[in-house]
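Deliverable D2.4 — example input (structure tokens):
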């Protein structure tokens, strides 16, 4: 569990790499607590790695301060910081065996041989490679090589481990296994992990705290549950999970209209009645037309394993996306029910910083193309 004390404070950080006014980070404020597992999550180019490089000392902010335990370290060079980084490309030394790859930093620091043996062995045990010390690194699988890279980063006993998409090069099954292992290591070691990924599922399953970023700006900081259940804007809602997002009108506190129907909800609303409404596909129940709040016709049913994804067109023309375990026939008239706590009310984007929905969707599609 993270402690209450701030280990790292990033205050009012701006980064303008080329000095041309294009900001990689804009007014970033973030604290990271001791022992916390923090994940920076967002689409490619949103500034996650830049934030990590600022913590590591590889990028100096154009403006703003970096503190460690309250001390200003903005100008401290990387090798003096109690921080180590694991990259997606592990950059191991191919001509050395596993043991020597892990021992490398300790040899440079002239640690006595006996201590090197003990510390390296302890790290190899931790990453599950205790019997692999004398193997050439290039005889190992991708997942095993990444473990060597993690052991190498941890052997210096850093206070903070920075992980920049460390599992990005692994196949899905190996990723899942390594996610579990990283969580276990974080627990065992009790050090702070700052993790970068564009994979929302990875972020949600591993972290104490998720920081959702877009376009150099933090969109929301919270626990995975907060971020999933109470997304602050359409960008977060869309990025975190597939949702139905549609415009709504708050008629009064706890009463919102969307898709032509008035629904009781658990939110009060904001200054203006126009809002965005988010409904998770698993929060919509399909029933008979008479018992439903919305009348709709089933257009498409796709079998997805445990549940079906169902597309149902309402009388008003909105195409609802629903997750349901029942079997429904295409063309059938149904009713849809949404309980008050399944309805999330969000402020409409107001400033230039927050994007209208169409742009968010365009970015999402780009992101998907990136991954293929
Ligand atoms: P992410 O890690 O979220 O993919 P980055 O932090 O790498 O994003 O990049 C944020 C923005 O800064 C991007 O627009 C990227 O092109 C730009 N950028 C990153 N590194 C540099 C650099 N060394 N010089 C110039 N621009 C950079």
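Example output (designed residues):
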């Amino acid at each position: 569990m993270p402690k209450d004390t701030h280990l790292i404070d990033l205050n009012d950080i701006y980064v303008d790499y080329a000095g041309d006014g294009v900001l990689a980070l804009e007014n970033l404020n973030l604290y990271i607590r001791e022992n916390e597992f923090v994940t920076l999550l967002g689409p490619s180019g949103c500034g996650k790695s830049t934030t990590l490089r600022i913590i590591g000392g590889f990028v100096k902010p154009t403006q703003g301060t970096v503190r460690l335990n309250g001390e200003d370290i903005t100008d401290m060079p990387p090798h003096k910081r109690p921080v180590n980084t694991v990259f997606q490309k592990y950059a191991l030394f191919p001509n050395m065996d596993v043991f020597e790859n892990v021992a490398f930093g300790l040899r440079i620091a002239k640690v006595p041989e006996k201590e090197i043996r003990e510390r390296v062995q302890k790290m190899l045990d931790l990453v599950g490679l205790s019997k692999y010390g004398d193997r050439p690194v290039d005889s190992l699988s991708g997942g095993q090589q990444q473990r060597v890279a993690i052991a190498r980063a941890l052997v210096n006993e850093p206070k903070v481990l920075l992980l920049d998409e460390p599992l990005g090069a692994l196949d899905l099954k190996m990723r899942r296994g390594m996610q579990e292992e990283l969580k276990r290591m974080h627990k065992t070691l009790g050090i702070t992990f700052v993790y970068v990924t564009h994979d929302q599922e990875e972020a949600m399953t591993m972290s104490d705290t998720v920081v959702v970023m877009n376009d150099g700006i933090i969109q929301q900081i919270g626990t995975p549950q907060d971020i999933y259940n109470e997304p602050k804007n359409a960008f977060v809602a869309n990025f975190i999970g597939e949702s139905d997002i549609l415009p709504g009108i708050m008629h009064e506190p706890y009463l919102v209209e969307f898709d032509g129907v008035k629904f009781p909800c658990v939110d009060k609303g904001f200054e203006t009645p126009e809002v965005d409404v988010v409904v998770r596909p698993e929060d919509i129940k399909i029933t008979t037309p008479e018992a439903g709040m919305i009348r709709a016709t089933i257009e498409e049913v796709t079998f997805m394993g445990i549940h079906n994804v169902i597309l149902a067109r309402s009388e008003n023309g909105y195409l609802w996306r629903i997750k349901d375990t029942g079997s429904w026939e295409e063309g059938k008239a149904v009713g849809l029910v949404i309980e008050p706590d399944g309805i999330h009310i969000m402020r409409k984007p107001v400033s230039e910083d927050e994007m209208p929905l169409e742009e968010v969707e365009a970015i999402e599609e780009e992101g998907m193309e990136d991954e293929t």
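Residues 6-230+364-371 form a domain with the Rossmann fold fold (CATH 3.40.50.300).
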